[in-house]
From TrEMBL:
GO molecular function terms attached to this record: N-acetyltransferase activity
Protein's name according to its UniProt entry: Ribosomal protein S18 acetylase RimI-like enzyme
Start and end residues of each N-acetyltransferase domain: 1-163
GO cellular component: ribosome
UniProt cross-references to PROSITE patterns, sorted A to Z: GNAT
Presence of the UniProt keyword Ribosomal protein in the record: yes
Top-level taxon in the UniProt lineage: Bacteria
UniProtKB keywords: Ribonucleoprotein, Ribosomal protein, Transferase
InterPro entries assigned: Acyl_CoA_acyltransferase (IPR016181), GNAT_dom (IPR000182), NAT_camello-type (IPR050769)
Taxon lineage: Bacteria, Pseudomonadati, Bacteroidota, Cytophagia, Cytophagales
Length: 170
C-alpha cells in the first residue's frame, strides 16, 4: 500500500470511496437521516472545498485504487464545532474491504505527524456512536473527549482533541 498526498485528480475516487465506505452506516440511520448523509457524501463541493483548504492523504492499493483517505484542515478554519486555533481531521475513511489492516490508524498517525511538522498545537475531530472502531483508534493515539456535541443524524457525537505540544514532548 502506498500513502501519498491526494489532489484534485483524485476527486471522483475520493467521493466514490466515501459513498461506498459510509454506506455501511445506512442500516444504523433512519431513511431520512441516511438520505441527508448520502447527499452530503455525494456532493462534490464537499471534497473540492476540503482539497482546496486542507492536507489530503490517500492510501492506494497495488493497482492504484484509493482505499483510504483523510483530510487535515489547518488552524484558521473555525466552524461551529472547531476553534480557530485548532487543526482538525475530517473524513478519515477506509474501504470496508480493507478494514482491520491498520489503514485508518496509519492515516491518522500521518496526519498527526503532518500537524506537528507544521506547528499545529491542537488537533481535533468529531465522531459518533456508530464509529466504535474509529473511536478506539483515536483514543489509543491519545485523543480525549472534550465534550459531547449536538446529535447529528439522530446519533450521539463527541468532540475529541489531542494536545500536540504535550504529545510531541513525550
Amino acid at each position: 500500500m502506498v500513502y501519498r498526498q491526494g489532489n484534485i485528480n483524485d476527486l471522483s475516487k475520493i467521493k466514490n470511496l466515501a459513498l461506498s465506505s459510509w454506506g455501511q452506516f445506512q442500516g444504523e440511520l433512519t431513511p431520512e437521516n441516511w438520505e441527508k448523509l448520502r447527499k452530503n457524501l455525494a456532493n462534490q463541493e464537499t471534497y473540492l472545498n476540503l482539497l482546496q483548504k486542507s492536507y489530503c492523504l490517500v492510501c492506494e492499493n497495488e493497482i492504484g485504487g484509493i482505499i483510504g483517505m483523510s483530510f487535515l484542515v489547518p488552524r484558521g478554519n473555525p466552524t461551529e464545532i472547531y476553534e480557530e486555533s485548532w487543526c482538525y481531521l475530517r473524513f478519515v475513511t477506509v474501504d470496508k474491504k480493507y478494514g482491520g489492516q491498520g489503514i485508518g490508524r496509519k492515516l491518522t498517525e500521518k496526519c498527526i505527524q503532518y500537524a506537528v511538522d507544521h506547528g499545529e498545537q491542537t488537533i481535533a475531530l468529531h465522531t459518533s456512536e456508530m464509529m466504535s472502531p474509529a473511536r478506539h483508534i483515536y483514543e489509543s493515539l491519545g485523543f480525549t473527549i472534550l465534550r459531547e456535541i449536538e446529535p447529528r443524524l439522530g446519533k450521539k457525537y463527541w468532540l475529541y482533541t489531542l494536545d500536540l505540544i504535550a504529545s510531541s514532548t513525550n
